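Entry under discussion copied across for reference:
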Amino acid sequence: MKWENFEKTKKIDEFTKRCLLNESIYDYKGSIEIIKEYWLNAKTITEFKELVKNDLRLENNQGYWELFKEDTRLVINYLNKKEHERIETYSDIGSLKVGNKDFTICIPNGIGDGTNYVYIINEDVKIPCLKFITTMSGENFEIYDYDCGNNVIKRLSGRYAIYNYNGIFAIVKWNK
């Protein structure tokens, strides 16, 4: 595709385009050139997006994550590539239930009833394609398989950040 069409396309959000071309100190050196190369070599915008999202050198570029936000399936694929522990929970009140025998809370999943995909990430990383929701810390807090039930499927101890996007949760261990 021609580079001058990058600015004109309406199939990529304007904010996402600005982020793709804004190389910060955290970005892979030369990320803008890589993005331009992918645009020029792609035959379609869908192919361009796939090329960018499959290049882990670009994962510190905010535009990379903005592209992921456009498609929930791609967020799941990204998290699966990292081989994090994944569990599924079910919802009838639109949430992920966590707590213990004395106290529980239901964290909204953003989509309502259905399946939640929960990734347990035991390293201190940011997950920019997901929205930061809250933190939790303590000993032996539990994740329940159903937001209206009491069956525990995972126990955690420590300090964690919880991120969410459309029924996808990342529970990220904080080492701070």
